[in-house]
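Ex. 9. Protein: Serine/threonine-protein phosphatase PGAM5, mitochondrial.
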Amino acid sequence: RREPLALINLKKKNEETGEEELSSRLDHYKAKATRHIFLIRHSQYNLDGRADKDRTLTPLGREQAELTGHRLASLGLKFDQIIHSSMTRATETTEIISKHLPGVKKISTDLLREGAPIEPDPPVSHWKPEAVQYYEDGARIEAAFRNFIHRADAKQEEDSYEIFVCHANVIRYIVCRALQFPPEGWLRLSLNNGSITHLVIRPNGRVALRTLGDTGFMPPDKITRT
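Predicted structure tokens for Serine/threonine-protein phosphatase PGAM5, mitochondrial:
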């Protein structure tokens, strides 16, 4: 419901001026800028941790975050903000990346926490969460998609560059939804730790995927998917 026509109360349309007034009002609601969304998967973390606070980054994970931060800084873009999952591994990854992007504000959100977005098709034998997880996590992750992945506001004058540091399941689901692919196929995608996925959202609402899970900036011995 972000098409300009959906943002106008047609009942208030002046019957005398008709289409001419409608056209001028539509221009007021049309997006002008492009949004660049950089989805970063957190770095490698301690899988043995029982609680979230114990699942901290490994030494290699910290190296990966440094490499990702250096890569983002090297792009020479003026990043507007870093929005990150409130989980420990995403927060730590964000802190390291942000050192390379001084002055860029950081925002934590529970919406981007890891979870089970939707039952995958085809199913897999090694991962079978309880059905209730799909209902609880799925609604939250869908809310994250609707809240963060959309065309620019009509008031936005310049193109924006935003970083989202979160989790593999969340990123894979968002990519499928953004490209209008069946979301049930999210588990067919694979993302390395610290990888960069770049979505572009044009003013007309069309979405393009520039990179998916890029880790070409990392030495081969630093690449992991755990």
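Check your answer against this statement. The CA atoms of residues 14 and 21 lie 7 Å apart.
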